[in-house]
Amino acid sequence: MQKFDEMMRQLPDAGPLQFLSQTMGGMSQVQVQGVRDHYQRYANWLARQPQDTMRARREEAEMIFRRVGITFAVYGAKDEDGAGTERLIPFDLIPRIIPADEWARLEQGLVQRVTALNRFLHDVYHEQEILQAGVIPQEQVLQNAQFRREMMGVYTPHRVYSHIAGVDIVRAPNANGEGEYYVLEDNLRVPSGVSYMLEDRKMMMRLFPDLFSQHRIAPVAHYPDLLLETLRASAQPGAPDPTVVVLTPGMYNSAYFEHAFLAQQMGIELVEGQDLFVKDRFVYMRTTRGPKRVDVIYRRVDDDFLDPQVFRRDSTLGCTGLVDAYRAGNVTICNAIGTGVADDKSIYPYVPRMIEFYLGEKPILSNVPTYMCRNPEDHKYVQANLKDLVVKEVHGAGGYGMLVGPAATQQEIEDFRKALDANPGGYIAQPTLSLSSCPTFVDSGIAPRHIDLRPFVLSGKQVQMVPGGLTRVALKQGSLVVNSSQGGGTKDTWVLEA
After folding, report:
1. Could you tell me which of 120, 172, 171 has the C-alpha nearest to residue 144?
2. pTM, whole model, 2 decimals?
3. pLDDT digits over 158-214, tens only?
4. What residues make up the domain containing 413?
5. Where does this protein have coiled-coil stretches (predicted)?
6. If you average pLDDT over residues 112-134, what whole number do you get?
7. The CATH number of the domain where 107 resides is what?
């Protein structure tokens, strides 16, 4: 096994751990040196754990997750009989640990960023001051496929459009070689993954209860309470005791487990489009006791499928007349229709300017430097440096439609070059960051794997979140792609209390 002093040089999250005399039979002789302070206690504990014990715990976790039904449907993947496949999202036993001071700064940056993004959404669907000021080119917004003209002038309580945001954060060296948090992308439409954050924490507490008596770890179990509070606060005026539902596309959706899980945790109804109907511009759900008015819909259905009267005519996932009821102010949809224009990758480079324009503040969290291929100079540079860049489709998601230059074959690069020439405006490119890694328990033992973090930011009367978020880990050696659809796994995220 690779020595830890060599392995951990690339692990700014944990620090340069040095595990000596490591053997596959156990780690009782391991000496831990040079660990970042907030990892020290955990590293000392880990050094005393035999690998056989850790493997047994991993098998126990997999058995429990499978029994509970915590699976992820893989689109396009088929089993031997040609049916769609579901698999567990791999869970790693070794947590990602964030010290209190780092989290405090990160939380400030997230509140600032999501506040500005909501201000931007209200603006582009009302006065459009940022466009008139030339801060963002008008065509980038008004001709964006995610810009929904149906939302022009629509009132949203507290001027909030993205009530639940999942902001993807990476940690990488800055110009001074110091670890810094960067925003990789904003997810403002129907961000997923929070159920895995909650289940990972429950699993760690079940498998390693002694660790939680040794560390002061900020809790996350109250997230469903905060989410319900946020949803209820988003109700239109005149709904003092609002009825909230979760709208799911159904059991064949990849994140169906999460939809059912959150509805159960909040104590509200999980509904499909066929369970709802609109009468006199009010939304009702069918119940065994007759129709019941619905005030807030936490939708996990994409815009295009919400209302066949307005969007896709062939959709059976939404509810006819829903947009009309929404525009009349008789129901709130969370997240709002049209939020996608703010998290489109072609808009991402402008978020720092939004923060300065709306809040008069410098961004606390930096963007990753980004080349916009619609600009001729950027396009020329990207074409000349494809082997060194990460290139993404502006409407892509889930790790699809992207090129990781350093890991790509020459044929993949050439194929992407043709696609880029055919539609330069459909792509952005970013340098390949030296993402932080975290010790991860893999088949060969403990090894470094790249990670990111998705905190879940809730916006209602106030902006709030639980400490931490979902840490995703690229389980393939050297891979930078952490998405579960691409073979990534998850870790519990510990924010240490001060």
Report:
1. 120
2. 0.89
3. 999 999 999 999 998 887 888 899 999 999 999 999 999 999 999 999 999 999 999
4. 369-431
5. none
6. 98
7. 3.40.50.11290
